[in-house]
Amino acid sequence: MKKNVLFVMLLSGIISQTFAQSSKDQQSVFELQHNPFQRRFTFDLGKRDKMDIEISSMNDLHYLLNIDSIVQEFITDMEPLQDSILREPSSRRIEYAIDGPNLKRISLVKHNPPVSNFVISFGEMSMLKVVQDTIIINGILPVQPGGTLFNKKTRPHYYRISFFLNDLNGLGTYKGHLNEKLGRLQEAADGKWVLRQDGKMYIKSEPDISAQSKRGYSGGSTLIAVRPSIDVQNYKNYFVTSLSGGIAFVSNKNLMHKEYFVGYEKHFLFAGDTAGKIKTFANNFIVASYGQGAIDPYTKKTATLYPFISLGYLVKRKGDFYDKHTFKLGLGQFNLFGNYTKIEPTLFFNNFFRGCTPSLRITQHF
Question: What is the Cα–Cα distance from 363 to 306, expressed in whole angstroms?
C-alpha cells in the first residue's frame, strides 16, 4: 500500500435490499452537504455498462479529460482489497473519495442476494449475478474563482463519476476510451438533442451520450434563448407563411417548465395586381407568450399538449388582408418531435373581438 495514501475503511455488512443504480435511489456514504452538481451526463459503454459524469458547469469538463488516469489511480489503490471484493456472485458498491493527494477514503458494501440464480451454457452450470456493481468516484477539481467583484473568494468545484457495471473487474477494459468519450461530449454538447423513447434526451450526433434534459441540466436551470422559427397558417381563404424570432426566458425548476417569450412575426401573403402579377404583402406582428408544464422524465412522450397563451398585435400593415388594429390570440399548443414542431389554434380579431377569424398555426423551430 502506498505510504502517501491513507485509507479510511468503512466496511458494511450484508444488506437486504438491491443496490440502487443511481444517486437518487441510494444516498452516497460520502454525500456532500449540498448538491453542487448542475450537469449530469450518461455514457452507454455497451453490454449494459454505463458511466455517469456529474459536474457543476461545462467549464469543469476540461479538468476531467484525463479521466483515464483517474480510473487507473482507482484501480491501483484497490489492488490491496482484491481478496475482499472478488467474491461471486456478490454485487458490490464501492465509493472512492479523493480528498487530496495524500488522503483518500473508500467505502465497500457487498450484497449477497437472498435468491440464487444460475445459467446453463453448453452443459455447464454457473451462478448468474443479476444486480450490477457500482463504483462511485468523488473528487475536487482545481480551485476556481468565485464570489463577487468586491468579495473575491475561492470555492472548490466537485465532480462525481459513477460506473454501473456487470462486473467491476471489467473497468480496466475501458481505459484508453474514456478520455475520447468526454472529448466527444465537450465538442457536441451544444449540438442538437433528441428525445428518446425512455424519456431521456441524447445528442443526435453522439447517440451513446444522454441526459435527463438538454445539455445535461439537472436540478433546475434558467437560461435565455433565441427562438427563430418558420410558420404556416391559414387566414380566411389565404395560405400564410411567416418567419418568427425573439428572445425566450426559460426556467426548469422544481419539476416545472416555464417559458416567457417576446418577439415578432412577419406574415407573407400573396395576391395578383391589376396586371396579373403576383405581389408579396408583408405584415408584421409583435408577440408575447407564456407557457408552463410539468416535467416528468419518466412519462415524456413525443407528443404533448402544452398549456400556452400568446397575444400579438399588428404593427405594420400592408394590403387589405388584415383589418387595422388586428390582434391574434393563441391558446394551447400541441407539441411534436421533442417540442421542435408545434401546432397552435389561433384567433384573429379586432376592436374587442369583432371580426373573429379562427386559424391553425404550425411552427417549426430550428
Answer: 14
Which of 219, 245, 275 terminates a domain? The answer is 219
Q: Is residue 1 part of a domain?
A: no
Name the one residue in this structure whose C-alpha cell is 422544481. 254
Cell 395576391 belongs to which residue? 271
Cα(89)–Cα(195) distance, integer angstroms: 36
Domain span at residue 279 reads 222-365
| Residue that terminates a domain, selected from 219, 246, 268 | 219
The model's pTM: 0.53
Question: Hunting for cell 457536441 — which residue is that?
Answer: 188
- Judge whether 2 lies within some domain: no
Average pLDDT over residues 294-304: 54
How far is residue 187 from each of residues 22, 37, 184, measured CA to CA in Å? Answer: 26, 20, 5
Local confidence band at 11 (pLDDT 50, 70, 90 cut-offs): very low
Q: What is the phi/psi pair of residue 76, to 5°?
A: -65, -45
Looking at the structure, tell me whether residues 43 and 158 fall in a common domain. yes
CB 365 within 8 A of CB 193: no
CA-CA distance, 284 to 328, in Å (whole number)? 12
Question: What confidence category does residue 144 fall into, taking pLDDT thresholds of 50, 70 and 90?
Answer: low
The model's confidence at residue 6, banded by pLDDT at 50, 70 and 90, is: very low
CATH number (domain holding residue 339): 2.40.160
pLDDT digits (tens, 9 = 90+) for 183-197: 999 999 988 888 877
Q: How confident is the model at residue 176 (pLDDT cuts 50, 70, 90)?
A: confident
237's grid cell: 381563404
Q: For residue 8, what is its C-alpha cell? A: 479510511
Do 280 and 193 reside in the same domain of the chain?
no
Q: How far is CA 251 from CA 7, 27, 137, 286, in A?
A: 43, 27, 31, 23
Does pLDDT of 43 surpass 70?
Answer: yes
How many domains is the chain built from? Answer: 2
